[in-house]
Design brief:
The chain is about 40% helix and about 15% strand. By secondary structure, it is α/β, with parallel strands linked by helices. The structure holds (3S,4R)-3-hydroxy-2-oxopiperidin-4-yl beta-D-xylopyranoside.
Amino acid sequence: MIGRRALLAGMGGLLAAPAFAQDMPSLRGLAASRGLVFGSATATYELKDADFALLLPREAAILVPEYELKRNVVEPAPGRFDFSASDALMDFAHAHGMAMRGHPLVWYYANPPWLEDAVLRSPNEKPLADYVGALASRYRGRMHSWDVVNEALAPDGSGLRPGIWLKRYGPSYIDIAFHAAHAADPAALLVYNDFGCEQGANDRFRAQTLKLLDGLLARAVPVQAVGLQGHLSAFGSKVDQKKLRDFLGEIHARHLGVLITELDVDDENGPMDGAARDRAVADEAARFLDVVLDSPALSAILTWGLTDRYLDPPDSLKLKLLGWRARKLPFDAALNRKPLWQALARAFSAKPAY
Ligand code: XIL
């Protein structure tokens, strides 16, 4: 039998392989060799891009919809469900031997405009529990994990975040959501997902997170893991490695798992020079990864997109005119690996193999 390498060599320059298709390690493979799942958020429009559709399954073993499982997409009118996009993502994952995670079941944001009135006027828990049940049962047995409740805590560390769910059902909305998800899909890993625990300055947020989790656990609510979104900042508030390590120890002590669910590194306020920004982005990610990869509770890391190609242009007119392009993700807009890719690869390789 002719080997793949020989075959490719024999074809000479006929098939000019893009850089990412060459025989190089992938984040998918490096993570898997350490017992971890690496993946990315994506969207159906990205999968229509042929280069990207090759890159994604090569690098990622799991995907999560960037916005196509949010309630404003899934239930545009009361009781009218549209799973066309999330089904397409599930099909893509299945066709490429990838897992899929669901995000989010309950959030204060990205809800359809009709929902607020329906929730506030409802005599019962149906607008919350039925929705959770509908999604979790549709994908029963096929979701790696669900972000059951997203961002329930106020960013200032003052406690629960105001929103329609808290207003109508009080703090028990979180319990209701987890119970409904567990009843509909007992096999999916049920995650509480938020963004405030990563940066060193957020002591109060970490304390509130532990308080929330302790309450859930004391009431035997089926929460099984914590999702740290991992929206880092290269030129803003930084990770404090000791505080993060201690926090992950607290999570592990509660027998909860950890997932990094939305890693990216904001390069706002950095220099125009792309290479300098890339280094700062990679350095901050490395400081974060050093700590999280040491945690025995960690099972998965997903970035919030794989490439800078689809990032929005900056809001600021000045930056727009200067041609600023954000560089927060592992591959650049031409799908070349960046220092952030190397930081991830190095961090995976440095973790002891099982
Ligand atoms: C963002 C998406 O990137 C947008 O496309 C969408 O319109 C709004 O949500 N925390 C989360 C994600 O949990 O769902 C958010 O994603 C980013 C912040």
